[in-house]
Every structure is written in structure tokens, then in C-alpha cells.
Amino acid sequence: MSTTVAGFAVQDPSSPDSKVYAAFAYRDGTTYRFATTSGGEGAWVSRNMRSQQNKTLSSADELADIMAKTWISKRGRGYQQLLAGPVTFEVPSALGEIDPAHLVSAISNEMPVLSATDATVSRTVLHAFSSIAPAQSAATAPPSAARTHLDVDASERNGITLPNGKVMYPRQVAGHTDVAMLRHLRSTDLYVRLHGPAGGGKSTVPYGAFGDELVVMHGHGDTTVAHFVGQHVPLPDGGFEFRDGPLTRAMKEGKPFFLDEASRVPSETISVLMSVADGRGTLNIDDLPGSAPIVAADGFWMIIGYNEFGQGVRPLDDAIKRRFPIAIEVTADFTAAESSGVDPRVIKVARNLHTQNAEDQADGGLGTWVPQIADLLVAQRVLDAGLGVEVALATLVSACTIPDSIEDVREAIEAVFGFEAQALVLGGRA
Length: 430
Description:
This protein is an alpha/beta fold. It has helices at residues 41-45, 60-76, 100-107, 118-129, 154-157, 178-185, 204-210, 225-229, 246-253, 267-270, 274-277, 318-323, 334-339, 344-362, 373-384, 389-399, 406-417; strands at residues 2-11, 20-28, 31-39, 50-57, 81-92, 160-161, 167-168, 172-173, 176-177, 192-195, 215-218, 230-234, 240-244, 256-260, 282-283, 294-295, 301-306, 326-329.
């Protein structure tokens, strides 16, 4: 049995121990509960926050109101760094009061909703526990109030093992769970494009959703139509045989197709996806003249992943964007870094840069560089290799892809570690 919980976690970085406060709302039979926990950053990382209160309320409206007021109160008292939520999630439980440690452990796997306000908190609670928000009729309620909540089962919330043996942790997207959304959309002709900075984990989402069933193709600047559809290959007897490419194979076998690095593929080449994605679901292979078009079998579906900036990256054609209308930005998942054993201090540097970037952009600025999960894992591997914190932090400085942000990275490191990291440079003779 599982219980739906709505919650958020905020932090006051300037307080002693960088205090963290988390608030939760859940239903206990016919009543509702409001629970809070608090503790230093170490307690948050170790999932050992202490329980502060656990109130029983009579309605979802009361619950939404107290959660929103708590948000306003804490944000006004210095808890300006958002660690997680506001989101809904599931925890295994029976009726009754839930152990705060279970709630903290569950919400620590969620990402922050950086644009959240007290109204966001209220809506999150009401959508979790009310079929229709207060003062609304069924005719005027927003579509999201009656939507299906797409989620994974409890076992997958604790991590999904990918084909390469690594573990990914499902994330929230508009009130749903990412991999559950992809699985659901597979039965439609609504195709998905995942975009975001390099190293953010775009490829882990389709792998997490479909595992070994996923047919993957990696794009590059020299990609041709033959790489998608297939080509004739020589045989030992001197003849030739046509071998299907990954797109053709996925269509015939009814499997999900994932094109990674789509923005590196030339526009005239990626247009091969047009007829497949525009509702016809067919593919003509020019190298097989006279052959019937390939018709997508049931179960076929498409996802593309791409970076919007970087060397060798091309702007994605608008016609392709229209055929992949579900656009999801994939950014750094710091909770995945925590679960992977990355040093909490390194994660704090990344979180601080993430907050700085969001605040700068909200003020109309260009923002700053934010380390992605791949960058954090490299830093930890350096630590694990015994090379020391100075070398590990140097990898973060060197990973920064925005020259104007290097000073921000150094300052963020100094604020946490107490010294300014530098890129590695050879010195005098040893």
C-alpha cells in the first residue's frame, strides 16, 4: 500500500549548519496530515531530519492553506534556496502517521521547481487530494485538475537499473513521473524531444523508460540517410545485401527509437523523420526502388535528444520541432549525484551555482554555468582515485563551458571549501 504525499524542502544557506526545513501533506484515511521536519544540511544528506510537528486537519483546503502559509513564512525568514518540490510523490505506508525519515528520503529524490510560489504549493496540494479545486465547478476546473497522474511503481522509485548497469532515479515533470510519461505517450503519435546541456542525463530518461527494448542511434555531423534507414553491404561471395538501419528496424519491430545528439545531424538528413512523424508512419527507402514503404508496427514510437548550444550543434529545424511537440528540458539531477555517493560539498557547490543561475536569469541576466551530473561524477571519481580535493575541484573549473562563468565557479567553490580552485597547470621540475 502506498500513500500520496505533497511536499517541499527549503534551505537557509546563511544559517548555522545551513539549516533545511521540509513540509509535507498527506491523507490518513478520512483526515489529512500536515508534517514538518528540520535539521542542518548534514541531517538532510543523511536523511536524519528531526520531526517538528504533525497536525491533523479536516479538509484538503485546510491542508493547502497551511502548506502555502508555511512556504511564505519560511521563504520570508531566509529559506531562499529551494532543494525539492513543490511536488507529489508516493511512499509505501499503512494508515497512520508516516515516519518523517521516510518522507525526507522520498522528497530528497525530487528536483526543485524554481519558479514555484505559494500558489504553486497550494495547487500541488489541491491537485493531489481534491478532484476539483475550491470555488470551481466541473465546467470551470482547469484540465490539469482532472488529469491522470502518471507514475512508476514503488520499486522503480528506488532506482531503475539501466542496460549499462548504472541506476537512474525517476523525476517529476508537470506532476507526472518522467519515465511513466514516456511509456504512456508511446501509445500516441505525440513524440518527445529532450533538450538540455551536455552531461545532464538526457539519454538516461528513455533508457529508464524502455531498457533493452530501446533502439538507439547517435547523430553526428556526417550522419547520412543511410545511417537511419540502412544500406547495401558486401557479402563474401561478391554479392550485396541490404541491412536495415536503426530507424527501419524499430519501425518493423514496433520498438521505441531514440535519436541522440539530434542537433548535430544535418538538416537535409534528419528530414528523413518527416514522413515517419507526421501521422503517415511510413518510410520510403530510395536504395530499394520499387519496394513498398515501411509501415510502422504497433509499439513504434520516437524520441530525440539534443543540445541547443555547443561546438558542432545546429539549430533544430522548426518542422522537426513541430513533429516532436512534447519538449522536456533535462537539467542536472543533484539527488542522483547524492545517491551515487558524490561528496555533499561538491553537490553544494553545484546547487549554489544552480540557484545563482536561476536568480540571475529571473533578473534578466544571462545566468551562469551549472555543473551537470556527469561533471559531478567525474569530480567524485577523482576523489575516489585518491588524487585529492584540489584536483577534483580543478575538473569542475575545467568543465565550465562558459568563459564568463569561470570566476563564478571559483567563487562558489571558495564559499564551500575555503580556497579558490584553479585549472591544473604543470609547475617546475619535480
